[in-house]
Amino acid sequence: MTFSSEKIIEVKHLVKHYGKFKALEDVSFEVYKGDVLGFLGPNGAGKSTTIRAILSLIKPTGGEIKLFGKDPVKDHKYIFSRIGCIVEKPDFYLYLSAQKNLEIFARLTGVELKKNRITEIIDFVGLKGREKDKLKGFSNGMKQRLGIAQTLIHDPELIILDEPTTGLDPQGILDIRNLILQLKDEYNKTILLSSHLLSEIELIANRMVIINKGKTLVQGSVADLLNEQELIVSFTLDDIEKARSLLASFGIEKQFITINQNNLLLQISNDKIPAVNKLFCDNAIKVFSIETTRKLEDYFLKLINN
Amino acid sequence: MFWKSTYNELIKIIAKPRSYIGLGAITLIIAIILFAMRLDGMTYLSFITQLFDQSLSFQGNILNGNLVAFIILQMLIVHIPLLIALVTGDLISGEAAMGTIRLLLTKPISRTGIFFSKYLAGCIYTFVILVWIGFLALGVSKFVFGTGDLMILKSEGLVIMQEQDIFWRFLSAFGIAYLGLIMIATLSITLSCFSENSIGPIVLTMAIIILFTIIGALDVSILDNVRPFLFTTHMSTWNSFFENPLPTEQIIRSAILLLLQIGGLLGIALYKFNRKDILS
To answer: Cα dihedral angle (B10, B202, B231, B183), rounded to 10 degrees?
Structure first.
């Protein structure tokens, strides 16, 4: 599902070469207003290179990038006053306090901020009480929170988060996920989120792009892309053998994945689940549970391995 | 935005412990010199006066603040470049090493704006260092030793300058010395644009200074054409303000050469910084 037709990021046939090494060969995608776009790819696929190119940190060898419909190099000031970002890990001045760090970056946002904005944002990311502490003593999770505070300080329209959960413990990952969900749901921000954690993307993003070896493999709505693939559905039944012969008589025995104890695993598309369930019920096979095991992970791995 | 960025750079310099190494070292060195001169300054002076004992009679306060300030400047001018490079060589490469350059360059300020705000902050820091030296060398020396005529031993003989003729010379000497130190700051910032770590540009700046100083000191005719173009040759031009008559032409030539080299280095640094891929 696309929230708006207004393109916030437009990347067309992006190419980046470092000497003979081809970091990006053909990356294209769009981010629409209100999107939370999951940007996926295995290590070395070119995610960070693409994000660096979008943010003008590196000069592309070829292709075109537009942010808010404009050229990020020519309209640097206009564009970057509307963007907040974390590239890879949030690095700050360790010899300064959290508040001083935010003050430094706030001065460069190009936006007139409210007097208590820094206090407000420190509170929002859950660092209240630690703002006067130097960053030397901050954990990775706290630095990530500060990184998010830094991206939000000027209330940007577009937020770019490159691996925001790297190096975090499960609680840290959960906290960052909740923060992003809050940005999406309460503040309706457009977010480009690059992550290794596919479950995060599945939970947070409405659209996704998958790249590999510097090329775009697929882009679209998360729901639509996942619905295209067949699911692995686990039926917990009272009579597995009866169910198996029943399915065989309907010619779908090839879709058996495995049978174990009371579970029958089938590879079927989403729309066939009610029909199979009805078939079991009509033939007096008790269905105790139906679990879909379809994951973005399966889809991702299938795509990458192909 | 440029001024806000410069303000940020100054805050960073103030907060960095390494910025105080220079001030601390200068204070310590000058304190030691003042202490030594206070304790045994007349013995030091007697090396000069005894050469002229037969022909001249020295009267008044010859071990005064002006002389001590001159001695301090001669001793310190060799070491200040290192103290300047320690801070300015870190201004860009230090951000790359820390990773903060990524955040800086994604703000609505051009790379040229960021570069010049860092450069201006580096120039202000250099100025503060020089003012501190001036305060300690001239102010404190005068307070401790009083004032008087300045007596300098040169290769061509003893030069004596009247008390009222000295202050402007010190002021001008500081001015041209500042230009020399700005040259060092520009060199280290330029090298900083090519590096991803903060130590490299500092070490390289010092290596270049040492190399140029050696080339300048080598009495080999083949280097005669090179020597006038080395910035290290012109870094001691401040000494010319304590000559009579003033070698105006030489001072102007030195200032122009330093300015041209500063301009050239700034051009190289800007070219590199604006086209640099940020990979750190």
So the answer is: -10
Average pLDDT, chain B: 88
Cis peptide before A72 (omega within 30 of 0): no
CA distances from A154 to A170, A176, B46, B54 (A): 29, 19, 68, 78
Question: Judging by beta carbons within 10 Å of its beta carbon (0-12, 13-18, 19+), is residue A298 exposed, middle or buried?
Answer: middle
Set of chain A residues whose Cβ sits within 8 Å of the Cβ of B12: 93, 96, 104
Q: How far apart are CA A298 and CA B4, in angstroms?
A: 49
Q: Which helix (H) or strand (E) holds A159?
A: strand A158-162
Alpha carbons B88 and B82: distance in angstroms, whole number = 10
Q: 3-class SS at B46?
A: helix
- Is B191's pLDDT higher than 70? yes
Measure CB to CB from residue A81 to each of B108, B110, B279 and give the nearest one.
Answer: B108
Over residues A45-49, the mean pLDDT reads 90
Residues A192-215 have a mean pLDDT of: 85
Q: φ and ψ at A156, to 5 degrees?
A: -75, 160
pLDDT of residue A55: 93
Q: Is A150 on the interface with B (CB under 8 A)?
A: yes
Q: Quick one: pLDDT at residue A293?
A: 66
Tell me whether residues B100 and A57 touch, CB distance under 8 A: no
CA-to-CA distance for A305 and B13, rounded, in angstroms? 50
pTM of the prediction? 0.84
The C-alpha atoms of residue A40 and residue A139 are separated, in whole angstroms, by: 26
Distance (Å) of CA B89 to CA A227, A271, B124, B196: 56, 65, 14, 11
Interchain pair A108, B4: CB under 8 A: yes
CA distance B223 to B211: 13
Q: What is the pLDDT of residues B38-70, one digit of tens each?
A: 888 778 777 777 766 667 666 777 788 888 888
